[in-house]
């Protein structure tokens, strides 16, 4: 039954204007419940470094930086308010509103916790009041993206509700409304969700099933928000829904074609869930599946071993097959997680090939590995966390704009992260890698670099030293790089991370600020666009205010503000608030 047709009871598809919760077609028989044990004090190791002394001059500088970030936030927030209030997004160049996420004011809801963290109480209260008017029973979307709805709306309400001390009950009410919608997508024969939910089909009474080719992140990263909602409401249906999913991940972990990890495409239309494809990445389409494991462990106060097993079961496999160091002109020790493909899967002849592609989306891995190194006491991984984070900082610093590209290819130089290594920079090494990347495109299959051709490639494409290709030149205001810098700063307390953050912020501000808000950038490799064009594109996703500026701001706050020993960023509070948190406020 496609759009335009009729359902069984002759209700035309288009005539259905709002979704309606129906009695479950596939009732859940046995409900998984939250672990009941209380976390023992001290059972989860500390994440943040001990407090450091701050000189008056250092404090002055920090506060000036913090206020600059706050001013940037207010600039974009006011632009959204003036031009696109209650819409999902504002066009930062045109001022035109846009509604790509259901039309439920995604920017407003997603940014609530940042408003609170920045102490913008009047703005926060105005926004909370506006939330009362959001009608989640109607939508402008044909299909509802369940993952995006969960992270932006449900996560937005829950984070704001808890950070503001549960003093605004409307936030929890709205969270439940969003979750009611999300739960409709779980009413399938497998109890696994339809990732792009056809609300008209559901309301028309049709049987629905998960899609056999679903992105693993879209089914695997609903756990934090739904678990938190059960913690807050006591209603076990939310936790039940995600525990079924994590059990499937655990059962399948040793049996995929790259045992330990899960492929980009999975099949939740079958039971057990299918994991039969062979492409693996920590980047787009898979990223938050992996990111959520250590955070879920923290959210449950360390009493459930499953998220730890899932993390520990995958990370060494990812280190072995996907982690690559990268040569760069300053010989900074840096690494990236790349993509892998398994051919000829099987116990005896598995062949894993990997590429040399880095993505901005994988930049969260520095923070994930760092957080997990502390929480799971994997101290040797701290060096990898630093190298992953420095890889993304390097990618920013290497370009003409000071912004990291969406994706690029680098010079890989070894399969393990080692010190005193074989990764030293040379012009020849760069030329050889460039030539390997480009020679067939130029119909020249010679093994040795052709210097004349190489010069032409560089003149046309502006690759910075150390990059051998840039597939996607954009910077779309993403948060992953600064998220990792922020976590590394809180873990180590080293000032160098705050200074790196400031350099990144200055570049982001210089390139993205518009009269209205902040714009995505079309090409980070060139400072000025060619005549008659502009680098600034008319798009500002909600994560700019909800994530990117929040991390920048928190770098320049005292470490007791959203301490990682109390909170699971960027959604919910840790159930066990610690009275003896380090780094007291100055
Ligand atoms: C973020 O909104 C989320 O954190 C998500 O998990 C992946 N990427 C986007 C922004 O880049």
Automatic annotation (TrEMBL):
Taken from the UniProt entry, a GO cellular component term is: endoplasmic reticulum
Q: Which residues form a coiled coil?
A: none
Identify the InterPro entries for this entry. Answer: 6hp_glycosidase-like_sf, Glyco_hydro_47, Glycosyl_Hydrolase_47, Seven-hairpin_glycosidases
Q: Which co-factor is required?
A: Ca(2+)
| Amino-acid positions noted as binding Ca(2+) in the UniProt annotation, renumbered to this chain | 571
Q: Which pathway does this chain act in?
A: Protein modification; protein glycosylation
Q: Name one Pfam family in it.
A: Glyco_hydro_47
- An example Gene Ontology molecular-function term: mannosyl-oligosaccharide 1,2-alpha-mannosidase activity
Q: Where is the active site?
A: 148 (proton donor), 287, 406 (proton donor), 480
Which BP terms does GO give this entry? carbohydrate metabolic process; ERAD pathway
Q: Which domain of life is it from?
A: Eukaryota
* UniProtKB keywords: Calcium, Disulfide bond, Glycosidase, Hydrolase, Metal-binding
| Protein EC | 3.2.1.-
Cysteine-cysteine disulfides:
363-392
Enumerate the PANTHER family for this protein: ALPHA-1,2-MANNOSIDASE, MANNOSYL-OLIGOSACCHARIDE ALPHA-1,2-MANNOSIDASE-RELATED
**What family does this belong to?**
Belongs to the glycosyl hydrolase 47 family.
What is this protein called in UniProt?
alpha-1,2-Mannosidase
Q: Which organism is it from?
A: Microdochium bolleyi
